[in-house]
Structures are given as structure tokens and as C-alpha cells.
Specification:
Blueprint lengths: L1 E5 L3 H12 L5 E6 L4 E3 L6 H9 L11 H7 L4 E4 L11 H10 L3 E4 L2 H17 L4 E2 L10 H8 L5 E7 L2 H13 L3 H10 L8 H4 L2 H13 L11 E2 L7 H9 L2 E10 L4 E10 L10 E8 L4 E7 L3 H22 L1
Parallel strand pairs: 1-2, 1-4, 4-5, 5-6, 8-10
Antiparallel strand pairs: 2-3, 7-9, 7-11, 9-10, 11-12
Helix pairs in contact: 1-12, 3-4, 4-5, 5-10, 7-8
Length: 328
């Protein structure tokens, strides 16, 4: 199967390394980042492109843009892993639309287009007879979307809730463990690379809210937007609040929750018993799905990272490959 990759940052390079490390029967015929690109129907030398990128140079020719790859490369699946923009979804939204209109499958880790335009993109994929897969948009390596769509098919999901942001979870873990202030824990998270220079999306609950919107729309058909999410971040939490929770044998976690029947979407710090399965340490994510037939199931794993996100993208690619080959 031939793929084109847009985005050659941490996630894109993680995907490239996975392709090199495993015999996945995937040929990369298009590759681009914001600075350069390559189109080669015979297959791109991914190892050479990685070496160039890691030396600080362009991965290909500066005359080849992501739009060129979408429109001109010969591929079966577009892998869209450019940085997320949740204001208007661009340029990823345009890339995805363009590929679907060319009757190409799409796999993405980009939360912007899926949060903002999932019903449109789902219908566009169906109209063109192709797959749109987006496992990597929520909870990194945890196969949460696949589990709910495939493994829990036939179940009615009454509620899903959990820890969707590893940065906040790390900060709260450190505040509880060593009585650090929020500012101290955030500084430590930055030093370790868990928090961006501007951590607003994480600590204000925006990242978790985006993931709730994706799950609400894609899994539960709720047709919601970010404006529908009640949201409170962790910036005002104090060591004293965590100590009070500790006195009750509890702790505090930033919990995202969707209750479809009530139309509820919310993100907020919650007091949780220390023995609750959602009380995970460090940068882990954990999500509990409440169902009528299977009961409550909790999924725990790494919610971010180059290799972890690549795992979800590769899973989607192989899902398409197996069905694409069967249907050929």
C-alpha cells in the first residue's frame, strides 16, 4: 500500500521509524513538511529523509509543498500529522478534503479537522468510497476509538469519563506527591518536555475538551462544538486543596466527561478516591467507558509521544490495508 505523509515533526518521524523498523508492506510515495517535500512514485528513501531532517535541513525540495503532495502524489492513503489548529482546522482540513475528493483514504492525528468538521468529513469519505481514520486524535497509544466502534459494537454507551491530558496529570501528580505549588510543578513539566512554553491548551482544559468533542461527535453522534463543553482548568489549584483531598484518602485529577443522554460535556478538576482506576500517575491517560452490555471498562496507557502516536497511526493504516487489499 502506498502512503503520503504530511508533517515530519515528532509524530511524522515516529511513523517513518516504525515503517523502517517493521515489515509493514507500506511504500511512502509522498512526504512534506512546512518547508519542503518529495514526490516519488517508486518510493522515497525514508532513512535519508530522516537523516536530513534530524541534521536540521529540509526533508526534500523546497519547491514541493504539502498541497502538491495531496494533489499530485500517487498514494492510497494520506497520513495527515501536521500541527493541530482548532481555530479553523487549516491547513490540515484542506489537505484532508483534497485527499478524500481524490478517492484517497485518510489517517490523521490532527485534532483540529476532526473536532471542527467530523460530520462533513465522514460524509465526504463515504461519498468517495474511502476510509477516514483518526484513532491518534484521542489518547495517543490507547486504541479507544477502535474499541468503542468495533469491540463494543452493539453496546449503548451511557457515559465516558477520564484523564485525557498527560501534562495536567503530571502536574497534579507532582503537586500531590511533594506538595509542589502549581507553578513549581509546571516548571518541572516544562523542563522534562511534558509542557509547552505556552501550556494554556493543556492547563486550561482545552486539549481535553477537544478530545471530548471528537468522541462525542464521532462515537456518540452528538454534533457538538467546543462551545458546548463546560470547562475549568487546573491553574487555581493549590497544594492545600490536594492536602484536603489527601485527608479523605483521595486526590484530584482533571476529568473530562461525556453523558450523551443528558447532553453533558465537561472538563474540571475532581476529587477522586485514590483506589479509583482513573487515578493514574505521571503522564498516563485513563478513560472509563460505561456500557449496558459490557459494564464499565477502563483503558489506561500513554496519551502522547512520538512512538505512542505512531502506534495509533500504524494501527489505522493496517486496518485500511487489510480491508483495501480484501476489496481490491
Amino acid at each position: 500500500m502506498r502512503i503520503a505523509i504530511l508533517g515530519f515533526g515528532s509524530v511524522g518521524r515516529g511513523i517513518a521509524r516504525a515503517i523502517l523498523a517493521k515489515n509493514l508492506d507500506l511504500t511512502v510515495t509522498g512526504l512534506a513538511d512546512s518547508r519542503s517535500g518529495i514526490i516519488d512514485p517508486a518510493g522515497i528513501d525514508i532513512a535519508a529523509a530522516l537523516a536530513k531532517k534530524e541534521e536540521g535541513g529540509p526533508c526534500g525540495s523546497r519547491d514541493v509543498s504539502p498541497a502538491d503532495v495531496v494533489a499530485k502524489a500517487d498514494y492510497d492513503v494520506l497520513v495527515e500529522v501536521t500541527p493541530t489548529n482548532v481555530d479553523d482546522g487549516e491547513p490540515a482540513l484542506g489537505h484532508i478534503r483534497g485527499a478524500l475528493r481524490r478517492h484517497k483514504h485518510v489517517v490523521t492525528s490532527n485534532k483540529g479537522p476532526i473536532a471542527l468538521a467530523y460530520p462533513e468529513l465522514r460524509d465526504l469519505a463515504a461519498a468517495n468510497g474511502v476510509f477516514l481514520r483518526y484513532e491518534a486524535t484521542v489518547c495517543g497509544a490507547i486504541p479507544l476509538i477502535h474499541a468503542m466502534q468495533e469491540g463494543l459494537a452493539g453496546n449503548t454507551i451511557s457515559r465516558l469519563y477520564g484523564v485525557f491530558n498527560g501534562t495536567c496529570n503530571y502536574i497534579l501528580t507532582r503537586m500531590a506527591e511533594d506538595s509542589l505549588t502549581y507553578e513549581q510543578a509546571l516548571a518541572e513539566a516544562r523542563e522534562l518536555g511534558y509542557a509547552e512554553a505556552d501550556p494554556t491548551y493543556d492547563v486550561e482544559g482545552i486539549d481535553a475538551a477537544i478530545k471530548l468533542v471528537i468522541l462525542a461527535n464521532a462515537i456518540l453522534d452528538m454534533r457538538t462544538t467546543l462551545d458546548d463543553v463546560e470547562r475549568t482548568g487546573i491553574t487555581l489549584l493549590t497544594p492545600e486543596a490536594l492536602r484536603l483531598a489527601e485527608d479523605q484518602d483521595c486526590t484530584i485529577r482533571l476529568i473530562g466527561e461525556v453523558v450523551p443522554e443528558a447532553g453533558v460535556l465537561r472538563v474540571s478538576p475532581r476529587i477522586v478516591s485514590k483506589v479509583h482506576p482513573l487515578v493514574v500517575e505521571g503522564t498516563l491517560n485513563a478513560v472509563t467507558v460505561g456500557t449496558d452490555l459490557a459494564g464499565d471498562l477502563t483503558f489506561i496507557g500513554k496519551g502522547a509521544g512520538s512512538t505512542e502516536t505512531a502506534s495509533a497511526v500504524i494501527g489505522d493504516l493496517l486496518y485500511i490495508r487489510d480491508r483495501h487489499v480484501q476489496g481490491s
